[in-house]
Amino acid sequence: AVTRPVPTCRHCGEPVKRGQLMCRPHWFAIPQPLRQAINATWRKREFRAYLANVREAERLLKTDEEGAQA
Q1: Disulfide: which of 23, 53, 65, 68 matches 9 by Cβ 3.0-4.6 Å?
Q2: How many other C-beta atoms are found inside a 10 Å radius of the C-beta of residue 42?
Q3: The whole model's pTM is what?
């Protein structure tokens, strides 16, 4: 039997369920309107808008992580 690699959160390496963008703590660190926009654009299959929203979320998380290290 072939085993699939366990998906992980790119921010912390925690395992996530298949199809999840990131772990729960990082997901809820994103402002609610942006989380809602990510979900809405995914459901509507608006992939360019979805990717733009994900990039914005990644940028916010990276900024937060850099600030925490300073």
Answers
A1: 23
A2: 16
A3: 0.82
Nearest to 55 by CA among 23, 30, 32: 30
- 53: which 2 tokens? 């929203």
pLDDT tens per residue across all 70 residues of the chain: 778 888 999 889 999 998 899 999 999 999 999 999 999 999 999 999 999 999 999 999 998 777 776 5
Cα first-last separation, the chain: 46
Residue with tokens 């290290």: 69
Q: Token match 């402002």: residue?
A: 31
